[in-house]
Design goal:
heterodimer; A: 266 residues; alpha/beta; 4-stranded parallel sheet; 9 strands; B: mainly alpha
């Protein structure tokens, strides 16, 4: 074990349930959060924050299944509903009431779409959760590691336009001493990163530019040190954009949870 | 007397023809799949007030937004004057309201002249945006000769209608001052007085001719305009109120459920036989033609006024891909018009073996990121994403023709519960060796 480190045993719903425990929140990791190498770091960062603040939570672990968001948006309603019903069965068996997730796509699907199949949950995106903790004074950031850094925030479509959440991520960023610059197209006018609706998994149709390049160019106009995202797909796209522009050394791409993790030195 | 009869007959004809066209469009919209939208009446009226009447979403682009308000509000207000025109036309009187309103009358008419000026300014600005400045969204590939001409015809007609008001009022005023019979004194009007010097050397007979011509031109112009609208993108002047009323109220990110699939999936998961449909009809999954879309999708297509605000913000379109949400709306409407014409000609069961896929390609449909920039931009709350998704559903579930990469993620999701090819048992690997600093 590394020195001065504490090992985190991530609580799994089935284990807690066996012991008769019921956590307050289910943390929905999501397929990207579990398998995408880059986004695993975000999951880990958020889990550290939860642990640090003694939040009562658990994950479904290997019982979690794809939310079906991609399947539905790619037109495979049959597969989506299968995924939804299986997940709902699992979650209802554990009497899940509140769900936390770092993925705006899962957030949207679980919050707005599962209710058609008896899956009724209070779903909270991690930026909303962090916003709430900051507002309640349970989380405060005194670190000034970003004091001289310029941050620009890219709105994920499924948090922003799809669910009208523009303030939570900005409130959290405002709690981190740093310089914030908005991109030209922001909030409800934000440009998509290009990955939604199944695009993430296929070649783009013929055109004269990739969407993520258009977006990263707009981000670069703000002369940022850090491009901030709050979505696994956006993160892949923005990182690709920085690589394409040969900027990945000087400009970083972080999720909001990672900024908090680093600020708290977790 | 004879004038009154002509007037009444013309109006009767114009209204009847308009009603006949409305009936047809409404029949066409009802060809769509039935869905019930009867909830939240209060909220819906609120939206109508804010978005349709109040034009709130138009203001996202302030220049065209303000110009549009000038034209829209101006046109409605100018047409209050139609009330008097109607009475005069039927009764054979001349400016009958002048005797009732007295000194207020020239003030009212002068204000209408201002509104007419606003309409003219707006229309001329719009014409120059389209034809001189060539604003990009009016010149996209789907804006072929007819959509461009359609827009120009409307704008030019409005300019002509408004000009006729000025010239009519100016000649009327000169005739009043000359004490010509029938033209009793009602006072001078503010803006049209600028036209007086141009006309005042003309003999009274010519002025009467001009005044009458402008009066009739205005009336007949309005009748023609009214009956042109159902053939034009300009139908939004009526439908946008309805379309906004029937807006989707759920969160933007929620896609429409398919209850028919819920039944099937439930029976697959429980192993029970699915209950038979009452009429035994098998409903298609998704839509390949207008009848498989809902009536709201079809209303969307008729409401579209081809402004292109959706296409101008579409990430796919912005990066040179084929997809244009406006084109999808126009294609659905054009197909619906054709299906309607076929029904008129050959009866309700006629099929022409064609579908929406003849005009909307898979390449367009698969370029959508479902980001909802289009629905956010639409001033009349059209839901382009929803129509695109219905067509995708058909491609995937009825034709099994999804792009191969998507088929691969479907089978990954089915087999190992994630779009990537990782084993479900590895879903907790991210949590291995997770340490945090001791605090």
């Amino acid at each position: 074990m590394p020195e001065n480190k504490r090992k985190i045993e991530v609580p799994v719903m089935a284990d807690l349930f066996d012991k008769g425990d019921k956590p307050e929140y289910l943390l929905w990791v999501g397929s990207a959060g579990a398998f995408d190498d880059r986004y695993k770091k975000v999951t880990r960062a958020f889990v550290k924050i939860l642990t640090h603040l003694n939040i009562s939570y658990a994950v479904l672990g290997i019982e979690e299944d794809s939310s079906g968001d991609v399947a539905r948006r790619a037109g495979n309603e049959m597969l989506f509903q299968m995924q939804a019903m299986m997940n709902i069965e699992t979650m209802n068996a554990y009497e899940v009431k509140k769900i936390l997730t770092c993925d705006p796509h899962a957030f949207n699907t679980l919050k707005n779409e599962y209710s058609d199949y008896d899956g009724n949950y209070e779903v909270i995106h991690h930026t909303q959760f962090l916003q709430q903790l900051i507002a309640e004074g349970k989380l405060s950031i005194n670190s000034d590691i970003y004091k001289d850094k310029t941050l620009t925030y890219h709105d994920p479509c499924y948090l922003g336009r799809a669910n009208g959440e523009y303030d939570a991520p900005r409130d959290v960023l405002n709690a981190i001493p740093s310089k914030k610059v908005e991109m030209k197209r922001n909030k409800s006018n934000a440009l998509c990163c290009g990955a939604g609706g199944g695009q993430m998994f296929k070649e783009a149709e013929k055109g004269d530019k990739e969407v993520f390049i258009e977006r990263i160019e707009e981000a670069l106009e703000t002369k940022p040190d850090i491009v901030v995202t709050a979505c696994p797909y956006c993160m892949v796209m923005m990182t690709d954009g920085l690589k394409y522009k040969n900027k990945e050394e000087e400009i970083k791409n972080y999720d909001i949870a990672e900024l908090i993790e680093q600020s708290l030195e977790l | 007397m004879i004038n009154s009869i002509i007037f009444i007959l013309l109006w009767a004809g114009a209204i009847a023809f308009f009603a006949w066209n409305i009936k047809k469009i409404s029949r066409n919209i009802k060809l769509g799949r039935d869905i019930e939208i009867k909830d939240n009446k209060k909220k819906r009226w609120g939206l109508v007030l804010k978005i349709a009447v109040g034009q709130s979403k138009m203001m996202k682009l302030p220049i065209s937004g303000i110009l549009h308000v000038l034209v829209y509000a101006g046109f409605i207000l100018v047409n209050i004057e139609m009330l008097e025109v109607m009475i005069d036309g039927v009764a054979g009187t001349h400016r009958i309201l002048a005797s009732i309103f007295g000194f207020l009358y020239p003030i009212a008419i002068s204000s209408f002249e201002f509104f007419a000026l606003f309409v003219m300014i707006g229309c001329i600005a719009f014409l120059s945006r389209r034809n001189v400045m060539k604003v990009d969204r009016f010149w996209k590939p789907e804006m072929k000769w007819w959509p461009r001409l359609d827009a120009n015809l409307i704008l030019i007609t409005e300019v002509v209608l408004m000009t006729s008001i000025f010239i009519m009022n100016a000649s009327d005023y000169i005739l009043q001052t000359r004490g010509v019979e029938h033209y009793h004194e009602v006072g001078s009007f503010l803006l049209s007085s600028f036209f007086v010097p141009m006309l005042q050397n003309l003999p009274s007979e010519t002025l009467i001719l001009i005044e009458r011509t402008c009066w009739w031109l205005h009336i007949v112009g309005i009748m023609i305009f009214l009956n042109y609208i159902p053939y034009s993108k300009h139908f939004h002047v009526f439908l946008s109120f309805f379309n906004v009323y029937y807006s989707k109220l759920e969160p933007v990110g929620k896609l429409a459920n398919m209850p028919s699939i819920t039944t099937e999936v439930k029976s697959m998961l429980t192993g029970e036989e699915p209950p038979m449909d009452e009429d035994g009809e098998v409903e298609a999954f998704g839509a390949q033609d207008v009848k498989e879309l809902t009536w709201k999708h079809l209303m969307d297509s008729y409401t579209c006024t081809e402004c292109g605000r959706c296409t101008a913000v579409c990430p796919a379109n912005l990066t040179g891909k084929l997809l244009s949400p406006r084109k999808v709306m126009m294609d659905i409407r054009d197909r619906l018009e054709l299906v309607g014409k076929n029904i008129d000609k050959n009866g309700p069961d006629f099929t022409d073996e064609k579908s929406l896929f003849d005009s909307i390609s898979a390449e367009e449909l698969w370029a959508c990121t479902t980001c909802n920039a289009c629905t956010n931009a639409c001033p009349v709350n059209i839901d382009q994403v929803s129509s695109i998704l219905e067509l995708r559903r058909y491609i995937v579930m009825e034709q099994a023709a999804a792009p191969s990469e998507l088929n691969a993620i479907f089978s990954n999701i089915e087999n190992n519960g994630a779009p990537w090819q990782f084993a479900q048992d590895d879903r907790m690997l991210w949590a291995d060796e997770l340490y945090m600093n001791e605090k």
